[in-house]
Amino acid sequence: MKVKYFEDTDTAYIELLDKPVFETREISENILIDVDEKGNLVSMTIEHAKENARLWEFSYQEIPHRETA
Q1: Which residue from 24, 26, 37, 67 has the least number of CB within 10 angstroms?
Q2: d(Cα 35, Cα 39) in Å, to the nearest integer?
Q3: pLDDT digits over 16-55, tens only?
Q4: Is 38 exposed, middle or buried (0-12, 13-18, 19+ CB in 10 A)?
Q5: What is the pLDDT of residue 52?
Q6: Half-sphere exposure (Cβ direction) of 65: Cα atoms closer than 13 Å
Q7: Which of 4, 6, 8 is nearest to 43 (CA)?
Q8: DSSP string computed for 6-60
Q9: Residues 35 and 41: beta-carbon distance below 8 Å
Q10: 5: alpha, beta or left, given left = phi > 0 and alpha = psi -120 to 50?
Q11: How far is the C-alpha of 10 from the C-alpha of 33, rounded, in Å?
Q12: For 17, what's the count of Cα atoms within 13 Å in the CB-facing half-sphere?
């Protein structure tokens, strides 16, 4: 996964898969998603990212798998 932030346009681009984009879909006025030919999510663009995605709070945390009894 790659996350890119473009400060000049306040746009966040989140690439989930390194695959060709088949179609871009508008989810809302400020959110676009790219899907592959099977409809799987490839990437997402968030306009006005600081306001719409609270980008200043971005963090990553990996949660270890727990074994259940």
Answers
A1: 67
A2: 5
A3: 999 999 999 999 999 999 999 999 999 999 999 888 877 6
A4: exposed
A5: 80
A6: 2
A7: 4
A8: ETTTTEEEEE---S---EEEEEETTEEEEE-TTS-EEEEEEESHHHHS-GGG---
A9: yes
A10: beta
A11: 17
A12: 13
CA distances from 23 to 20, 59, 63 (A): 9, 29, 32
7-11, 35-39, 55-59: which is most confident: 35-39
Q: The tokens of 19 are what?
A: 């695959």
Pair of tokens at residue 2:
């790659």
The model carries a pTM of: 0.78
All residues at 6 or more sequence positions from 48 whose CB lies less than 8 Å from its CB, including other chains: 10, 11, 30
Of 62, 48, 61, residue with least CA distance to 8: 48
